[in-house]
Amino acid sequence: MEHQPEPRIGDRERREVDERLRRAQDDGMITLAEYDERARACYAARFRSELEPLTADLPDEGPSPAPPPEPATVVADPSWHDDTRTPERRGRRRGFRGLLVAVVIGVAAVVAPGVLSTQDAAVFGSKVVQVAPGQGDIQVGVLFGSTKVVVPDGTQTTTAGTTIFGSTNCRQACAPEPPGAPQLQVSGRGAFGSIEVLTATEYAQDQQRHARDD
User: Fold this and answer.
1) Which residue, 129, 149, 198, 133, is CA-closest to 206?
2) What pLDDT digit, counting tens, does each position of 19-28 carry?
């Protein structure tokens, strides 16, 4: 009998597994490091057989509990009418919130595979990347988190890449250096997060400030 190839999966299946992994991490069943590792494998998977081991050790999830009933609205004066509580206005608000959630999920789904493919990626957390003297150009990623890139003093640094609904900051590290200074490019990509490039001196001063504040 001819062997039939295994059907491929799409982003919908990957998102379902990622959401279950995120709930397991929120409940303390897996650590943040385990979530990052499994999320990388999730968005790199091409077949369902590659997804099944990622949740095999998690307990089966029961049906979601019914939402509590909405509290009744008490109006002291019957003649008073709050236009913001009309069904039409509530419907528009729910529609806007639904659209916003859809945009966030859509952007995250598109950006996540590229972010998770980078060696230094911060997902739902923070990360510090130390660049060694003489190290070549690096790539960092961020998704709902923050990444600090610490470069050696005296390095002429430039930045590249795009962070959607986020920012890439490089002040002193990207300031002009004398001719002949070592060159380094920091390429960042991601969404809903920040990438900050600091010199070694800036980072040390930042750590000292945090120690004083604590």
Assistant:
1) 198
2) 999 999 999 9
